[in-house]
Amino acid sequence: MSESNEIGIVIGVERLASNPLDFWLYVQDNNNVQLDDIVYLEITEENQDEPRFIYGIVDEMKKSLEGTDFASDAELYPNKLPSRLAEIAHVSVLRVEPQIFNPPTPGHAIYKATNNEFKKALYEDVMDRTFVLGHTRTGLAQEEVIHGNLDFLDGESGAHVNISGISGVATKTSYATFLLHSIFSSLKQHEKNKRANTHAIIFNVKGEDLMWLDKANSKMNEDETSQKMYKKMGIEPEPFSNIQFYSKPNGQNSKLPASRDGEEVKLLHWTIEDFCKKQYIRLLFTEDDFRTTQIESLVNLVAYKLDNDFLEVGNSIDTCSTIYELIDEIEKLTQPAIDSDFKNNEEGVKTGPWSKGTNMNEATWSAFMRRLRNSARYINDLISDDSEIGSGVHYKQTNITVVDIHQLHGRAQKFVVGVILKELIADREKTDAGGENSPVFIVLDELNKYAPKDNSSSIKEYLVDIAERGRSMNIILIGAQQTASEIEPRIVSNSAFRVTGRLDAAESEKSEYSYLTQAAKTRTKLLQPGTMVVTQPQVPIPILLQFPFPAWATKKSDIKNKGTKKMLDEYASDD
Hints:
By secondary structure, this protein is of the alpha/beta class. Helices cover 28% and strands 21% of the residues. The protein is built from 16 helices and 22 strands. The chain has helices spanning 115-121, 172-190, 192-196, 224-233, 272-277, 287-292, 296-309, 323-334, 362-379, 410-430, 447-450, 458-473, 489-493, 505-508, 518-524, 565-572; strands spanning 6-10, 22-27, 38-43, 52-66, 84-97, 109-112, 130-135, 145-149, 161-164, 199-204, 243-247, 266-267, 270-271, 342-343, 346-347, 383-384, 400-404, 440-444, 475-481, 497-500, 531-536, 539-546. Strands 12-11-17-10-18-19-9-20-21-22 form a ten-stranded mixed β-sheet. A hairpin with an 8-residue loop joins strand 3 (38-43) and strand 4. The longest helix has 21 residues, at 410-430. It is elongated. It starts with 5 loop residues before the first strand and ends with a helix.
């Protein structure tokens, strides 16, 4: 224990009595105590064989003039009124070792936690595998790195991250990519074999923000604060490596990608055969379609027939070259008209072979075809019989796979996300669901679009399945949304790590944020970009932290030179 770290004493007067889980600190000698400081005290009592350590975090502060009664008395301080300035701080307990929960005795000295004591306060001494969550906020006297328990993230003991915050201010995507970079950095240092087999699929949903992760951010050369943070964290300030990109074709029948100016990008494409054999047609319909019409049974019938009748003699679905041709064939095969040679002196229309023996009516069939054709125009560029382009997203080829869906219509976005999640779950169920499979991280923003609280769809069910069962399959969801109150509760409740950026005042008071203390809720209304409040399983109190400016380009204009060689040289050198 360092005497120089003593900052005050436990108060314990009647109106500010100490409790086993919180107490008030009197700040002595104008010590610099702030919100978010981690403190501790050591108590040795007569009936105990070993000292007891209490660790806590400052979450409220007050400063007052003692000996005054009126607000106007402040004008008389300090020369005309014999009053005294008093500063006090409220401390919420983070940890007690050993776990003897008695109130701290008034008058006991309180110390600022640094180095090992800081780590003990945040349980880092009992974490076997860690990754960097961030850095104590700028302005605190001690610069400390805050770690998370990797066992609670990669499926060993828990899984999933959920991030909430106002769009543009909370920097949700920036923090998600920083976490991913931190995780791979930790695996690189401690578990190289596991890192080689760990994968991440990132969905780019806004602009081309995440389509330049392999390029260095030139702005980092001028950001000395972030450079120091990277060095303190032990993370190399470099762009992502071993990465691949997927983008929609730049028009129908085009073999050029629509993103990154075509630079090293694979086409987002599936073959007609995969569309049929893997029953992707189901992803073109939502629960609302089924609730407002009677077409669910028809969707099931067509999905089954496309799967089982593909390449069968007597049909032509395997000869279709576009999604439109396939839909034309589906129309002929499901036509519910009554068989007749002539009707009203005109040639009759024969009932489609797939509709025979069913009770399908024309209104249901028309609703089905109308919705199918409407969806087809949004995915037309993504489906064809050209097997040379490839089919699907092959995430196992690299550590990081970025799938650009920002240029797609909302229906097409849901289709792409649904197909990839469906195939990922099927692959993990087919192989050893947990076992030796290394984790696959799914980074998806705008969860409110894919897993809304009040509506259902196949995509939502995949996300809920991952949230509830993903740990056993080593599928880890890093999901983000503006408002947690608008997404499926099971996704949030199954997330081991919950991250909150800037929140709207009304949103912060909703039950979905009950894991935040009242002090933390108040702070979320004031957070600036680059600052987050993080809750993790072992630490009972939410912790405010900062993360550095991205070392990777977040847009094309960030790439103005060949990288950050100067910064990397400084990182490698000694202080």
